[in-house]
Design the sequence.
């Protein structure tokens, strides 16, 4: 979209006289931010020595603010295409409750504050990783990949997969295999999760000019890619148990959830037409959320129980 047309769209959008606090909170993408906090907590709890509670809390807060800053900057840049999609047109900027300038300033301020806070309370390795995560999500994914390649979700998924690594680095000042495994788990989870939604929202992505995989290479290729990524994801989900930093209970849960995820992906691959195909795709989309949430929930609970036994 040209700059001139964007200016016309911006000028014609309805504007509220004063933004409500809830509009600024919506810029943070709170649902995404909560997942970031949860996965970063898992990274912190993987530390071989329990971190100080203040360090853990302050680090989580900084990581959460950094994730929210990324969301605000994403909404600032994507305001033009957000107006064209039903699931995003109610966001504060396209709905006219906030201007792009306010979102940009808000996002930049939070980014700087989050990175420097994490550096001061934890260490500068963690702060550097957080800064890289924000940069990768905003510049590499939002500004470049999202509008230029159908592999946007695959490559861009690295930003969403980094919080456990940032959390582990905040607690230890280092990066190890366990945090990298959690990175790989989220990284491999991202494509089938979002491509399942893209199958359902294909027309909207096409109207917005976003080259999602179904729009560029077709639904058959997308269904195959979803199945392949799901099959590769399942053993990575079990890896924390196989590598010894999760219990047999986690291993059993991961095995069952992985099998169910692959079954959902098989259904998406086989059902090609009509409402059944749409329902299968949405079933995979929602189950993938359950899959990732339960895996990290079990891991966090196990580490908290281990921590309580250390303190007893």
Sequence:
């Amino acid at each position: 979209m040209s700059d001139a047309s964007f200016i016309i769209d911006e000028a014609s959008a309805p504007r509220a006289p004063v933004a409500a606090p809830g509009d600024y909170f919506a810029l943070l993408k709170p649902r995404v931010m909560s997942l970031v906090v949860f996965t970063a907590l898992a990274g912190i709890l993987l530390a071989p020595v329990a971190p100080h509670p203040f360090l853990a809390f302050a680090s989580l807060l900084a990581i959460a603010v950094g994730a929210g800053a990324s969301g605000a900057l994403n909404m600032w840049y994507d305001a033009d295409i957000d107006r064209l999609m039903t699931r995003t047109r109610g966001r504060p900027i396209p709905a006219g409750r906030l201007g792009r300038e306010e979102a940009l300033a808000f996002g930049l301020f939070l980014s700087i504050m989050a990175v420097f806070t994490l550096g001061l309370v934890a260490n500068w390795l963690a702060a550097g990783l957080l800064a890289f995560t924000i940069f990768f999500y905003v510049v590499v994914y939002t500004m470049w990949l999202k509008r230029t390649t159908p592999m946007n979700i695959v490559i861009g998924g690295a930003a969403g997969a980094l919080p456990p690594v940032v959390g582990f680095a905040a607690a230890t000042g280092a990066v190890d295999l366990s945090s990298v495994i959690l990175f790989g788990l989220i990284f491999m989870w991202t494509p089938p999760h979002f491509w399942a939604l893209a199958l359902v929202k294909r027309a909207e992505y096409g109207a917005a000019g976003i080259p999602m995989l179904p729009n560029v290479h077709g639904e058959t290729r997308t269904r195959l890619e979803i199945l392949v990524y799901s099959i590769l994801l399942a053993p990575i989900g079990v890896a924390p148990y196989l590598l010894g930093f999760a219990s047999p209970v986690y291993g059993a849960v991961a095995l069952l959830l992985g099998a169910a995820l692959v079954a959902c992906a098989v259904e998406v691959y086989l059902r090609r037409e009509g409402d059944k195909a749409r329902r299968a795709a949405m079933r995979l989309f929602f189950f993938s959320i359950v899959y990732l949430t339960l895996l990290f929930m079990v891991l966090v609970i196990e580490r908290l129980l281990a921590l309580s036994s250390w303190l007893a």
